[in-house]
Amino acid sequence: MKNFYLTTAIDYANGSPHIGHAYEKVLADAIVRSRRMEGIPCHFLTGLDEHGQKVQETAERRGLAPQELCDSVALDFQNLCRRLSIGYDDYIRTTEQRHKTVVQNLLQQLHDAGEIYRAPYRGLYSTRAERFVQEREMVNGRWPDDIGEVVEVEETNYFFRLSRHREWLIAFLEKNKNFVVPAFRQRQVLEFLREPLNDLCISRPKVRLRWGIELPFDPDYVTYVWFDALVNYISAVGHGTEAFSQNWPADLHVIGKDILVPAHAVYWPIILHAVGMELPRQILAHGWWLAKGGEKMSKSLGNAVQPLDYAELYGPDAFRYFVLREMTLGQDSNFSHELFLARYRGDLANELGNLLSRLVHMVHRYCGGRFPAAGAAGEEERHLQNLAAETVRIARGFYGNLEFSSALESIFSLLKAANRYAELRAPWKLAREEGRTSELARALATLGEALRIAAGLLIPAIPTAAETILQRIGAGPVADWRNLAWSDALAGAEVGDEVILFPRVEEEDALSPL
Length: 514
Ligand code: MSP
What we know:
The protein is of the alpha/beta class. It folds into 2 domains: 4-286, Rossmann fold (3-Layer(aba) Sandwich); 336-483, Isoleucyl-tRNA Synthetase, Domain 1 (Orthogonal Bundle), CATH 1.10.730. 46% of the residues lie in helices and 14% in strands. The chain contains 17 helices and 15 strands. It has helices at residues 19-36, 53-61, 66-83, 97-112, 166-175, 183-192, 225-229, 232-235, 260-274, 307-314, 316-326, 337-367, 379-400, 404-425, 427-430, 437-458, 463-472, and strands spanning 4-12, 42-49, 90-93, 116-126, 131-133, 150-160, 180-181, 200-201, 203-205, 214-215, 218-223, 252-256, 283-286, 289-290, 333-334. Strands 3-2-1-12-13-7 form a 6-stranded parallel sheet, sandwiched between helices. It has a 4-stranded antiparallel sheet with strand order 5-4-6-8. Strands 9-11-10 form a 3-stranded antiparallel sheet. 42% of the residues are buried. Bound molecules: 5'-O-[(L-methionyl)-sulphamoyl]adenosine. 5'-O-[(L-methionyl)-sulphamoyl]adenosine binds at residues 9-12, 19-21, 23-24, 49, 229-230, 232, 255-256, 258-259, 288-289, 297.
């Protein structure tokens, strides 16, 4: 069976990881985990984009060889993944031989097919975007931030015949309405395609840029950044080998909105089409995390969120939960410390963490550390059971549609209902009264089962905490949502030690610039 093959953008090796990189990987990881819970085998790729002018310049500035810089940045990014429980299956680096070989084979193939030609070119070049730009990309007479400063350049280069595939791409997008999600992003692609396309400059003379993959048909040139970077999606899974069809076509490319048009939604499908390869099945373009006031985050403005600081202070699951809960798919979101704290204290510490500690405490205190059997259900119990069944159904649906915020909202509604039930039944009072043992047993067993189901559904978002919950209530692992249903699985289960999952954090002022 082919894997569900999911990729993220590969990060530029010229900086350190920030919230955008962290968010994208958390999102991708949560998607993969949710697919696995449906019994779908997955392959999850992420990696590092190591060539290009900026890496060469940063390395020079720091007195390092470019490869040395990349090696140290790769460690930073891999460390970020480890700290955030990002369980990738493969990490591609574009300086690896397995990648270079595929890039060169692909270029040769396109050259042989007459899709690449050599020509002199005079144009406006943006170092920040690492591409030639066109005047029509100016906004109100100014270059937007992602293009930045532009200089006029004239040189002979190699070009890919992008323009000849425009009609094909339009027809493809009209037929495949969900190629890009959310839908408004696909409309932006079609909008871009209304104007004729320029052919794509795919090379840089080595005199200007040494740090790149050499063109197989001209050793004086290296490939231009996108032609190198995009190919990672096929080089990492063994393009040209038998294993390739185990993964390709990719099921989902997860990327940010800034690299959708033209790179992922125009260049990439056309490159693949030009060599007769299958296209990826879908591209998800997520929005951006902005600083509290809605402005772009940047190191120089001092408003950038350091994901690892959050993971350090509040735990990786708190960071994961926050970004998945707060970001509506495809939209931008503001990162505010107050909002983070509200989610941390309200949802995670109160609704979830408290329920676990209270429950484990009561099972120890009133039942000798083992869950009792539930016995016959009353009306309140049936209500919670129905809500749990409904939540399993709804949350699976939301996860399937990549609507994480809504999935988490529905799971927390179940937790809130469980907490209300706890207040209503007040097992701590029942324990003090004569002859109410069976009611006490029923209340504790019902709470345990509601928590087991909620924890099972929370696995993609907060894998470590969800596992701790399941262990502490003595439940077996939840590995497959298709058989996650209300049961008396906990009857007789031994609970673990009491634990505070999301403790109060004293030094939180350390993060206060937000
Ligand atoms: N190297 C290219 C991608 C090549 S993919 C074949 C690149 N790298 S990047 O490091 O600049 O960005 C990596 C990813 O992080 C992109 O998908 C980008 O959209 C995302 N983000 C960067 N900043 C972001 C935010 N502030 N918020 C959310 N994601 C953003 O582009």
